[in-house]
Amino acid sequence: MLMDVLDAVVVAVPAPVEQAQRHLLLDRGYDTPACRQLAVDEGLIAHIPKKASEEHPIPAPSDPERHPARRWVVEVGHSWFNRFRRLQTRWEKRQDLYLGFVELAACLIIWRKLAPVAPVRELPG
What we know:
Elements: H1 2-7, E1 22-25, H2 33-41, E2 44-47, H3 73-82, H4 85-88, H5 95-114
């Protein structure tokens, strides 16, 4: 499946510069010899955390060998939208109503992110 994912990349990948190499970040589910070999065959440097086992447990969070947990931007966006209960379970039968609630939620998310950092302006008069 990993080859299908790499072949389905929509954005054109620029050719690597001599000193710079392309990296591939994957989660523990891809920690197999076949996936690692596929990354090498594609000319990628694979960053795949090791699976936990009896002899090799997952390192403690403070251990430098542990890969830090990171959330993708899309996952964070889904999390923000899931805070709106009406969007989490779709109750509207009409698509235009549902899309309106999605757009309203997007506006509220943006407002909540910008309001704390926006400069306060005095109204004239």
